[in-house]
Amino acid sequence: MNTETVPAFGGPEPVAPVTRHVQVVANPTAGGFRFQTLDRLVARLDDLGVRTDVRLTRQAGELVEIARGLSPTVDTLVVGGGDGSINEAVRGLVDRPAAPPALAILPFGTANVLAAELSLPFAAHRIAESIVARKIAPLYLGRIGDRPFLLMASAGFDAAVVHGVDPKLKRRIGKLAYVAAIFRLAFRRDRPDVIVTADGETFTCRIAVATTARCYGGPLTLTPHTGVTVPGLRLVTVDDDRPLALLKAGVMLGLGRLARLSGVTDRAVVKVRFAGADVEMQVDGDPIAPTNGSIEAHPRVLSIITA
Ligand SMILES: Nc1ncnc2c1ncn2[C@@H]1O[C@H](COP(=O)(O)OP(=O)(O)OP(=O)(O)O)[C@@H](O)[C@H]1O
Protein backbone atom coordinates (compact mmCIF):
# COMPACT_ATOMS: atom_id res chain seq x y z
CA MET A 1 0.00 0.00 0.00
CA ASN A 2 1.28 3.48 -0.79
CA THR A 3 1.33 4.82 2.76
CA GLU A 4 2.20 8.33 1.57
CA THR A 5 -1.33 8.80 0.20
CA VAL A 6 -3.19 7.18 3.10
CA PRO A 7 -4.55 9.73 5.57
CA ALA A 8 -4.74 9.15 9.32
CA PHE A 9 -8.01 7.48 10.31
CA GLY A 10 -9.81 7.69 13.62
CA GLY A 11 -10.80 4.55 15.50
CA PRO A 12 -14.38 3.42 16.11
CA GLU A 13 -16.50 5.40 18.52
CA PRO A 14 -16.94 3.71 21.93
CA VAL A 15 -19.91 1.32 22.26
CA ALA A 16 -21.54 -0.27 25.32
CA PRO A 17 -19.36 -3.15 26.57
CA VAL A 18 -22.34 -5.47 27.28
CA THR A 19 -25.35 -6.35 25.08
CA ARG A 20 -28.54 -5.49 26.97
CA HIS A 21 -31.00 -4.00 24.47
CA VAL A 22 -31.11 -5.14 20.85
CA GLN A 23 -33.21 -3.62 18.07
CA VAL A 24 -33.65 -5.99 15.13
CA VAL A 25 -34.82 -4.43 11.85
CA ALA A 26 -35.38 -6.83 8.96
CA ASN A 27 -36.20 -6.27 5.32
CA PRO A 28 -38.85 -8.87 4.41
CA THR A 29 -38.23 -8.27 0.68
CA ALA A 30 -34.49 -9.17 0.87
CA GLY A 31 -33.49 -12.29 -1.05
CA GLY A 32 -33.61 -15.38 1.20
CA PHE A 33 -35.61 -13.66 3.97
CA ARG A 34 -37.20 -16.21 6.39
CA PHE A 35 -39.50 -15.40 9.33
CA GLN A 36 -38.29 -18.63 10.92
CA THR A 37 -34.67 -17.39 11.03
CA LEU A 38 -35.83 -14.13 12.60
CA ASP A 39 -37.88 -16.01 15.22
CA ARG A 40 -34.91 -18.25 16.06
CA LEU A 41 -32.65 -15.24 16.53
CA VAL A 42 -35.13 -13.56 18.87
CA ALA A 43 -35.75 -16.78 20.83
CA ARG A 44 -32.01 -17.34 21.38
CA LEU A 45 -31.47 -13.70 22.43
CA ASP A 46 -34.38 -14.12 24.89
CA ASP A 47 -32.73 -17.28 26.30
CA LEU A 48 -29.55 -15.27 26.74
CA GLY A 49 -31.44 -12.63 28.71
CA VAL A 50 -31.27 -9.82 26.17
CA ARG A 51 -34.19 -7.41 25.65
CA THR A 52 -35.00 -7.60 21.92
CA ASP A 53 -37.37 -5.46 19.87
CA VAL A 54 -38.19 -6.41 16.28
CA ARG A 55 -39.40 -4.32 13.34
CA LEU A 56 -39.92 -5.15 9.69
CA THR A 57 -39.35 -2.45 7.10
CA ARG A 58 -42.36 -1.45 5.01
CA GLN A 59 -40.55 0.45 2.27
CA ALA A 60 -37.14 1.27 0.83
CA GLY A 61 -35.33 3.99 2.78
CA GLU A 62 -37.12 3.35 6.07
CA LEU A 63 -34.04 1.82 7.72
CA VAL A 64 -32.15 5.10 7.34
CA GLU A 65 -34.77 6.83 9.50
CA ILE A 66 -35.02 3.95 12.00
CA ALA A 67 -31.24 3.84 12.51
CA ARG A 68 -31.05 7.61 12.83
CA GLY A 69 -33.83 7.73 15.44
CA LEU A 70 -32.96 4.67 17.58
CA SER A 71 -33.52 5.06 21.31
CA PRO A 72 -30.28 5.72 23.20
CA THR A 73 -30.97 2.59 25.29
CA VAL A 74 -30.39 0.41 22.21
CA ASP A 75 -26.80 -0.84 22.34
CA THR A 76 -26.99 -3.07 19.26
CA LEU A 77 -28.77 -2.68 15.91
CA VAL A 78 -29.21 -5.98 14.10
CA VAL A 79 -29.97 -5.60 10.39
CA GLY A 80 -31.76 -8.55 8.78
CA GLY A 81 -31.08 -8.06 5.11
CA GLY A 82 -28.50 -7.69 2.38
CA ASP A 83 -25.97 -5.00 1.58
CA GLY A 84 -28.66 -2.53 0.46
CA SER A 85 -30.37 -2.75 3.85
CA ILE A 86 -27.07 -2.54 5.73
CA ASN A 87 -26.16 0.50 3.63
CA GLU A 88 -29.38 2.18 4.77
CA ALA A 89 -28.63 1.40 8.43
CA VAL A 90 -25.13 2.81 8.08
CA ARG A 91 -26.47 6.01 6.50
CA GLY A 92 -28.74 6.52 9.51
CA LEU A 93 -26.11 5.60 12.11
CA VAL A 94 -23.48 8.06 10.84
CA ASP A 95 -26.10 10.81 11.06
CA ARG A 96 -26.59 10.36 14.79
CA PRO A 97 -24.98 13.10 16.83
CA ALA A 98 -24.29 10.67 19.71
CA ALA A 99 -22.08 7.58 19.47
CA PRO A 100 -23.95 4.96 17.41
CA PRO A 101 -24.80 1.49 18.76
CA ALA A 102 -22.85 -1.56 17.58
CA LEU A 103 -24.07 -3.04 14.30
CA ALA A 104 -24.74 -6.76 13.84
CA ILE A 105 -25.94 -8.61 10.75
CA LEU A 106 -28.56 -11.31 10.25
CA PRO A 107 -27.49 -12.06 6.69
CA PHE A 108 -30.25 -12.28 4.13
CA GLY A 109 -29.89 -10.72 0.70
CA THR A 110 -28.86 -11.81 -2.74
CA ALA A 111 -25.09 -11.40 -2.63
CA ASN A 112 -24.35 -10.13 0.91
CA VAL A 113 -20.79 -9.02 0.32
CA LEU A 114 -20.38 -7.78 3.91
CA ALA A 115 -21.29 -11.19 5.35
CA ALA A 116 -18.81 -12.87 2.99
CA GLU A 117 -16.10 -10.37 3.79
CA LEU A 118 -16.45 -10.85 7.55
CA SER A 119 -17.18 -14.62 7.34
CA LEU A 120 -20.31 -13.98 9.41
CA PRO A 121 -22.37 -16.96 10.57
CA PHE A 122 -25.74 -17.59 8.91
CA ALA A 123 -27.29 -19.79 11.66
CA ALA A 124 -29.59 -17.68 13.86
CA HIS A 125 -28.45 -19.18 17.18
CA ARG A 126 -24.79 -18.51 16.35
CA ILE A 127 -25.59 -14.93 15.41
CA ALA A 128 -27.40 -14.44 18.73
CA GLU A 129 -24.44 -15.88 20.62
CA SER A 130 -22.00 -13.62 18.75
CA ILE A 131 -24.17 -10.60 19.59
CA VAL A 132 -23.84 -11.45 23.28
CA ALA A 133 -20.12 -12.35 23.02
CA ARG A 134 -19.71 -8.86 21.50
CA LYS A 135 -16.47 -9.25 19.57
CA ILE A 136 -16.25 -5.80 18.01
CA ALA A 137 -14.33 -4.74 14.92
CA PRO A 138 -14.12 -1.26 13.38
CA LEU A 139 -16.23 -0.74 10.26
CA TYR A 140 -14.57 1.77 7.94
CA LEU A 141 -16.90 3.44 5.46
CA GLY A 142 -16.64 5.57 2.36
CA ARG A 143 -18.73 8.41 1.02
CA ILE A 144 -19.57 9.71 -2.42
CA GLY A 145 -20.55 13.36 -2.19
CA ASP A 146 -22.50 13.39 1.07
CA ARG A 147 -23.84 9.83 0.69
CA PRO A 148 -22.07 7.31 2.96
CA PHE A 149 -21.36 3.83 1.61
CA LEU A 150 -20.49 0.54 3.20
CA LEU A 151 -18.49 -1.28 0.54
CA MET A 152 -17.94 0.51 -2.74
CA ALA A 153 -18.96 3.06 -5.33
CA SER A 154 -18.34 2.22 -8.98
CA ALA A 155 -18.85 3.45 -12.52
CA GLY A 156 -18.84 1.78 -15.92
CA PHE A 157 -19.75 -1.78 -16.92
CA ASP A 158 -20.40 -3.21 -13.46
CA ALA A 159 -22.65 -0.27 -12.60
CA ALA A 160 -24.46 -0.78 -15.93
CA VAL A 161 -25.12 -4.36 -14.81
CA VAL A 162 -26.57 -3.15 -11.50
CA HIS A 163 -28.82 -0.72 -13.43
CA GLY A 164 -29.73 -3.47 -15.90
CA VAL A 165 -30.75 -6.21 -13.45
CA ASP A 166 -34.43 -6.96 -13.60
CA PRO A 167 -35.65 -6.71 -9.95
CA LYS A 168 -38.41 -9.30 -10.50
CA LEU A 169 -35.87 -11.74 -11.97
CA LYS A 170 -33.51 -11.01 -9.04
CA ARG A 171 -36.26 -11.96 -6.59
CA ARG A 172 -36.95 -15.17 -8.54
CA ILE A 173 -33.46 -16.44 -9.39
CA GLY A 174 -31.12 -14.40 -7.14
CA LYS A 175 -27.53 -13.96 -8.34
CA LEU A 176 -28.30 -15.56 -11.72
CA ALA A 177 -30.18 -12.34 -12.59
CA TYR A 178 -26.77 -10.58 -12.53
CA VAL A 179 -25.33 -13.23 -14.85
CA ALA A 180 -28.26 -12.67 -17.25
CA ALA A 181 -27.62 -8.89 -17.20
CA ILE A 182 -23.87 -9.42 -17.80
CA PHE A 183 -24.57 -11.52 -20.91
CA ARG A 184 -27.13 -9.03 -22.17
CA LEU A 185 -24.83 -6.01 -21.72
CA ALA A 186 -21.37 -7.43 -22.48
CA PHE A 187 -21.88 -7.29 -26.24
CA ARG A 188 -23.09 -3.67 -26.30
CA ARG A 189 -20.35 -1.25 -27.26
CA ASP A 190 -22.25 2.02 -26.76
CA ARG A 191 -21.22 2.68 -23.16
CA PRO A 192 -19.12 5.78 -22.45
CA ASP A 193 -15.62 5.75 -20.97
CA VAL A 194 -15.33 6.49 -17.27
CA ILE A 195 -13.22 9.57 -16.59
CA VAL A 196 -11.41 9.09 -13.28
CA THR A 197 -9.63 11.75 -11.27
CA ALA A 198 -7.63 10.07 -8.52
CA ASP A 199 -5.62 12.29 -6.18
CA GLY A 200 -5.19 14.87 -8.93
CA GLU A 201 -4.37 12.47 -11.81
CA THR A 202 -7.00 12.16 -14.58
CA PHE A 203 -7.36 9.15 -16.91
CA THR A 204 -10.07 7.09 -18.61
CA CYS A 205 -11.05 3.44 -18.15
CA ARG A 206 -14.09 1.20 -18.64
CA ILE A 207 -14.75 0.15 -15.02
CA ALA A 208 -13.70 2.08 -11.92
CA VAL A 209 -14.40 0.85 -8.38
CA ALA A 210 -13.57 2.86 -5.26
CA THR A 211 -13.73 0.35 -2.45
CA THR A 212 -13.41 0.04 1.30
CA ALA A 213 -14.01 -3.73 0.95
CA ARG A 214 -11.93 -6.70 -0.15
CA CYS A 215 -14.86 -8.75 -1.51
CA TYR A 216 -17.01 -8.22 -4.57
CA GLY A 217 -20.26 -9.82 -5.75
CA GLY A 218 -20.21 -12.18 -2.73
CA PRO A 219 -16.97 -13.98 -1.84
CA LEU A 220 -14.90 -12.88 -4.89
CA THR A 221 -11.75 -10.87 -4.08
CA LEU A 222 -11.61 -7.45 -5.72
CA THR A 223 -8.42 -6.41 -3.91
CA PRO A 224 -6.37 -8.16 -1.25
CA HIS A 225 -5.07 -4.79 -0.01
CA THR A 226 -8.01 -3.60 2.08
CA GLY A 227 -11.10 -4.79 3.91
CA VAL A 228 -13.99 -3.16 5.75
CA THR A 229 -12.21 -3.49 9.11
CA VAL A 230 -9.01 -1.92 7.71
CA PRO A 231 -8.69 1.83 7.10
CA GLY A 232 -8.05 3.02 3.57
CA LEU A 233 -9.80 3.39 0.25
CA ARG A 234 -8.57 1.53 -2.85
CA LEU A 235 -9.28 2.32 -6.47
CA VAL A 236 -9.48 -0.62 -8.89
CA THR A 237 -9.74 0.22 -12.59
CA VAL A 238 -10.21 -1.99 -15.65
CA ASP A 239 -9.33 -0.77 -19.13
CA ASP A 240 -11.12 -3.36 -21.26
CA ASP A 241 -14.77 -4.44 -20.93
CA ARG A 242 -15.09 -6.45 -24.12
CA PRO A 243 -16.58 -9.94 -23.55
CA LEU A 244 -13.28 -11.87 -23.52
CA ALA A 245 -11.65 -9.34 -21.18
CA LEU A 246 -14.67 -9.57 -18.86
CA LEU A 247 -14.42 -13.34 -18.84
CA LYS A 248 -10.74 -13.15 -17.86
CA ALA A 249 -11.55 -10.57 -15.19
CA GLY A 250 -14.26 -12.87 -13.80
CA VAL A 251 -11.80 -15.77 -13.54
CA MET A 252 -9.15 -13.59 -11.91
CA LEU A 253 -11.71 -12.20 -9.44
CA GLY A 254 -12.46 -15.80 -8.49
CA LEU A 255 -8.74 -16.44 -7.97
CA GLY A 256 -8.25 -13.19 -6.04
CA ARG A 257 -5.69 -12.00 -8.59
CA LEU A 258 -7.55 -9.39 -10.61
CA ALA A 259 -4.71 -6.85 -10.46
CA ARG A 260 -2.36 -9.30 -12.20
CA LEU A 261 -4.27 -8.77 -15.46
CA SER A 262 -2.78 -6.22 -17.81
CA GLY A 263 -4.99 -3.15 -18.01
CA VAL A 264 -6.06 -3.51 -14.35
CA THR A 265 -4.77 -1.15 -11.65
CA ASP A 266 -5.25 -1.35 -7.89
CA ARG A 267 -3.97 1.57 -5.82
CA ALA A 268 -4.48 3.33 -2.49
CA VAL A 269 -6.31 6.63 -2.94
CA VAL A 270 -7.51 9.48 -0.79
CA LYS A 271 -9.91 11.30 -3.11
CA VAL A 272 -11.49 10.07 -6.37
CA ARG A 273 -14.08 11.43 -8.77
CA PHE A 274 -15.89 9.59 -11.56
CA ALA A 275 -17.29 11.45 -14.56
CA GLY A 276 -18.25 10.90 -18.20
CA ALA A 277 -21.28 11.64 -20.34
CA ASP A 278 -24.14 9.36 -19.18
CA VAL A 279 -21.76 7.11 -17.26
CA GLU A 280 -23.68 4.72 -15.00
CA MET A 281 -22.86 4.46 -11.28
CA GLN A 282 -23.76 2.23 -8.36
CA VAL A 283 -23.22 2.19 -4.63
CA ASP A 284 -23.21 -1.04 -2.58
CA GLY A 285 -25.13 -2.86 -5.30
CA ASP A 286 -27.86 -0.25 -5.74
CA PRO A 287 -28.04 2.05 -8.80
CA ILE A 288 -27.47 5.77 -8.20
CA ALA A 289 -27.80 8.82 -10.45
CA PRO A 290 -24.46 9.94 -11.94
CA THR A 291 -22.52 12.30 -9.71
CA ASN A 292 -19.05 13.74 -9.82
CA GLY A 293 -19.08 14.16 -6.04
CA SER A 294 -15.77 13.27 -4.48
CA ILE A 295 -15.32 9.76 -3.13
CA GLU A 296 -13.28 9.44 0.05
CA ALA A 297 -13.10 7.67 3.41
CA HIS A 298 -15.96 8.59 5.75
CA PRO A 299 -14.77 10.36 8.91
CA ARG A 300 -17.01 8.26 11.19
CA VAL A 301 -15.98 4.71 12.00
CA LEU A 302 -18.72 2.35 13.19
CA SER A 303 -18.45 -0.82 15.28
CA ILE A 304 -19.51 -4.17 13.86
CA ILE A 305 -20.04 -7.42 15.75
CA THR A 306 -18.06 -10.29 14.22
CA ALA A 307 -18.02 -14.01 14.95
N1 LIG B 1 -40.10 -3.31 2.93
C1 LIG B 1 -39.43 -3.00 1.83
N2 LIG B 1 -40.03 -2.98 0.61
C2 LIG B 1 -39.35 -2.71 -0.52
N3 LIG B 1 -38.01 -2.44 -0.55
C3 LIG B 1 -37.36 -2.45 0.63
C4 LIG B 1 -38.02 -2.72 1.87
N4 LIG B 1 -37.11 -2.67 2.87
C5 LIG B 1 -35.93 -2.36 2.28
N5 LIG B 1 -36.07 -2.24 0.95
C6 LIG B 1 -35.04 -1.97 -0.07
O1 LIG B 1 -34.59 -3.23 -0.60
C7 LIG B 1 -33.27 -3.03 -1.10
C8 LIG B 1 -32.56 -4.36 -1.24
O2 LIG B 1 -32.55 -5.00 -0.02
P1 LIG B 1 -31.37 -5.92 0.50
O3 LIG B 1 -30.07 -5.37 0.16
O4 LIG B 1 -31.64 -6.18 1.95
O5 LIG B 1 -31.61 -7.29 -0.25
P2 LIG B 1 -31.06 -7.84 -1.62
O6 LIG B 1 -31.15 -6.81 -2.68
O7 LIG B 1 -31.73 -9.15 -1.85
O8 LIG B 1 -29.54 -8.13 -1.25
P3 LIG B 1 -28.12 -7.59 -1.78
O9 LIG B 1 -28.10 -6.10 -1.58
O10 LIG B 1 -27.14 -8.31 -0.89
O11 LIG B 1 -28.05 -7.99 -3.22
C9 LIG B 1 -32.64 -2.09 -0.09
O12 LIG B 1 -31.70 -1.25 -0.73
C10 LIG B 1 -33.82 -1.31 0.48
O13 LIG B 1 -33.84 0.04 0.02
UniProtKB/TrEMBL annotation:
PROSITE patterns the record matches: DAGK (PS50146)
The organism's place on the tree of life at top rank: Bacteria
Residue intervals of the DAGKc domain: 17-148
Pfam families per the UniProt record, alphabetical: DAGK_cat (PF00781), YegS_C (PF19279)
GO CC terms: plasma membrane
Record keywords: ATP-binding, Kinase, Nucleotide-binding, Transferase
GO molecular function: ATP binding; kinase activity
Residues forming coiled coils: none
PANTHER family cross-referenced by the UniProt entry: LIPID KINASE YEGS, SPHINGOSINE KINASE
Record-given protein name: Diacylglycerol kinase family lipid kinase
Organism field: Methylobrevis albus
